[in-house]
Amino acid sequence: MTELLSLSPDELLTTTRAVRRRLDLSRPVPLEVVREALEVGLQAPSGGNRQRWHWIVLTDPALKAQVAEYYRRSYRAYREAGGAPANAAAARVATSSDHLAEVMAEVPVLVIGAIDTGGAELPANQAGLWGSLLPAAWNLALALRARGLGTAWTTLHLQYEREVAEILGIPDRVRQGVLLPVAYTKGTDFKPGPRADMDAVLHVDGW
Fold first, then answer.
1. Residues whose CB falls within 8 Å of the CB of residue 195, separated by 6 or more in sequence, listed in order
2. Among 48, 51, 100, 179, fewest CB within 10 Å belongs to which?
3. What is the rounded average pLDDT for all residues in the chain?
4. What are phi and psi of 171, to 5 degrees?
């Protein structure tokens, strides 16, 4: 088993950040480590314990390059539509996101989390469907962090979900939910991020 970082549960939960600029693109990521982290991730709950999730792990440079190009195309449109960052914090996020879009193909491993819909039309409220996939994807991010790896939660490639599915041979009934670029991190000293004041978002016994 891979040696784990010395982190308390609270430290793990509060320091698993979106990592973009600090992904180590030069250090290979063994597939065994990804599998080990996925074993942890798949302890997450799923509706009816049906576990309809699927995980497409990309290590082939040609496949990564094709997926990364669709991500970059979608990111450019998103960035242009968003206008100038509103403040210094937003500018830092934008700069690191720019970086990730440019180097996505160089990230050692890309993981796409997907779920089998059974071919049914997606309901208007899709919480039940995605609630059976996304907790496992976040568990995976936590398990990777515990092993000295980082990732960033991304969904922009979904603008080209059909094209990516064709590249990877994903059946029509399987829908993609998240793309996680995975690499070892440059250092492991991540800190909790700023969040809104608790009293602004907490509602007890009603709104």
1. none
2. 48
3. 96
4. -60, 155
* Sequence-separated contacts (24+) of 190-197 with Cβ below 8 Å: 190/15, 190/16, 190/17, 190/19, 190/145, 190/150, 191/15, 191/17, 192/14, 192/15, 193/17, 194/89
3-state secondary structure at position 173: coil
The pLDDT tens digits of the residues spanning 104-127 come to: 999 999 999 999 998 888 888 899
Task: Kindly report, residue by residue over 49-88, the tens digit of the pLDDT.
Answer: 999 999 999 999 999 999 999 999 999 999 999 888 889 8
Up-side HSE of residue 43: CA atoms within 13 Å toward CB?
10
DSSP state of 144: H
pTM greater than the 0.85 cutoff: yes
Characterize the bridge pairing of strands 53-58 and 109-116: antiparallel
For residues 73 and 93, give the distance between their C-alpha atoms in angstroms, rounded to a whole number.
Answer: 18
User: CA-to-CA distance for 21 and 19, rounded, in angstroms?
Assistant: 6
Q: Where are the alpha helices (DSSP H) in the chain?
A: 9-15, 31-41, 61-82, 88-103, 127-130, 134-146, 161-168, 198-201
**pLDDT the model gives residue 84:** 83
Residues 26-48: what's their mean pLDDT?
Answer: 97
Closest CA to 142 of 31, 44, 28: 44
In which band, very low, low, confident or very high, does the pLDDT at 89 lie, cut at 50, 70 and 90?
A: confident
Bridge partner list, 91:
none
CATH class of residue range 9-191: alpha beta
The structure tokens listed for 107 are 């990230």
